[in-house]
Amino acid sequence: MANSIEGRVPFLDHRLVEFAMSLPASLKARHGSLKYLLRHVAARYVGAPRAGVKKAAFYLPVRKFFGSEFDVFVRDTLNESSVRNDGYFQASAVTSLVDAGLTDTLLESKRLMAVLMFTLWVRSLRARPDGGVGITRAVAARSRP
Questions:
Q1: Do the domain assignments include residue 2?
Q2: Which pLDDT band holds residue 134 (cuts at 50, 70, 90)?
Q3: Which letter does DSSP use for residue 53 in this model?
Q4: Model-level pTM greater than 0.90?
């Protein structure tokens, strides 16, 4: 995931990754599955039905977890003047996204969380002693036409 923030823990043992990379493709991909060997080994431990389950999205119900405090935090963090001052997004579009994202609509909530996480990340960089100068300039250059 070169262009995103990963929210899960991948296989971290380099020996496992190196072993998997050394295997022939015919062992890794079969019957249209790119996870043939992984599923085959997992079936020994969790059973074939569980090992064969397709990947499914999981979204943390953030508003239900944090309650009304989350709404206040989001509105405070993504208020129109601070978004305009950050300079990465159109303030009016973010205001509309906040209104839509603080509902139970999954897609809008997901978009809101992406903007919120990006904003918090950039602001944390700017708070560094060097102001995150190199990184924030690179992000700004990529985000503007």
A1: no
A2: low
A3: P
A4: no
